[in-house]
Amino acid sequence: MAPTAALPVFVLNGPNLNLLGQREPEKYGSTSLEEVRRMCEGVAEGLGLAVDFRQSNHEGTLVDWIQEARTAASGIILNPAGYTTTSVAILDALLAAERPVVEVHVTNIHQREEFRQHSYVSKAARAVIAGAGVQGYDLALQHMARLVAGAR
Ligand code: CA2
Fold first, then answer.
1. Which of 28, 83, 120, 137 is catalytic?
2. How far is residue 143's CA from residue 113's CA, in Å, rounded to a whole number?
3. Per-residue pLDDT tens over the stretch 62-98
4. Which end of the chain has fewer beta carbons closer than 10 Å to its terminal beta carbon, N or C?
5. Which residues of the chain have pLDDT under 70?
6. In this structure, how many other beta carbons lie within 10 angstroms of the beta carbon of residue 113?
7. Domains of the chain by range and CATH?
8. Are 60 and 127 in contact (CB under 8 A)?
């Protein structure tokens, strides 16, 4: 197994994602956020990464965690959920963090309502994964492993 990177990858989840698997399964699937966390930990271990998996319904908390990532994380995987289309504060924090960012959406936001299709976060993201379901977190970790190893 590859050595574990010194700092964890932060996997941050925005508002209402705590409801994953409990509501609207036709849209978001039936996997709970707790199951996504366990999947991320397993995938990360195989990649030699550690993950710190968190969820908040509060914009300021997400900003605080992104600021924390500047010194405490090797990279940031973020599903900004409802803040995707509104939060200049999250974008500014991501730009200041100077860490590789991968943006994840469970659904294909480009197939959904027009208001979901613009993302401030994408301005700071090295990659965007949308529409792969919760598997998108697995894909994001695989890509993050390459980014923290120094790949472009
Ligand atoms: O597809 C995604 O991952 C989204 O980021 C999810 C957000 C939505 O606002 C974005 O446009 C796309 C919504 C997260 C709410 O999650 C729920 C999960 C289950 C039931 C209800 C909400």
1. 28
2. 28
3. 999 999 999 999 999 999 999 999 999 999 999 999 9
4. C
5. 1-5
6. 7
7. 9-148 (3.40.50.9100)
8. no
